[in-house]
Write a structure and sequence with these properties.
Length: 158
């Protein structure tokens, strides 16, 4: 079975939790077993949002996950990026795993989005999805769907 990892950082953005569940659902429909690696606070929000673990297959603390992953652990990575620390985690995981990756960059300020996009573009080969999305996840969802379809068309995904 194909395996995907989703990286979640600090849950400041109200869009992160619903988008994480949406992304998980989309990946499961494509045959992926999904692991969510996150901060403890982001994990608590997911546990409240998905109490029966219908969407989330496995959960890992992001620090523990970072210590144990290696190339070949997963087939696809999707990372939520809305803080400097999230950029660092995404770049680190992407370079260790060396797999197709999607960076979902969202913020209120366009300058911050541009800065994070530049940092990820310079350090990874990830597909970058960015939108001014804080309370409303729709712009990010629409762009994520397009990016996933684009990666499928290019035969980048396993």
């Amino acid at each position: 079975m194909k395996k995907a990892i989703i990286l979640l950082g600090c849950p400041e953005s109200p869009s992160q939790t619903p988008m994480a569940i949406y992304v998980t659902n989309e990946l499961k429909k494509k045959g992926y077993k999904v692991t969510v690696s996150s901060t403890p606070s982001a994990m608590k929000l997911l546990e409240v949002s998905d109490p029966e673990s219908f969407y989330i297959d496995e959960k890992m603390d992001i620090e523990s996950c970072l210590e144990s992953i290696q190339e070949g652990s997963f087939d696809l990575m999707v990372g939520f990026v809305h803080r400097d620390a999230a950029v660092s985690y995404f770049v680190t995981f992407e370079n260790i795993l060396n797999i197709p990756s999607i960076a979902l960059i969202s913020e209120r300020e366009l300058e911050v989005i541009e800065e994070f996009t530049k940092m990820i573009k310079e350090s990874t080969n990830a597909e970058i999805v960015s939108a001014r999305a804080y309370h409303n996840p729709t712009p990010l969802r629409v762009k994520f769907d397009k990016a996933l379809k684009n990666m499928e068309k290019k035969n980048v995904l396993p």
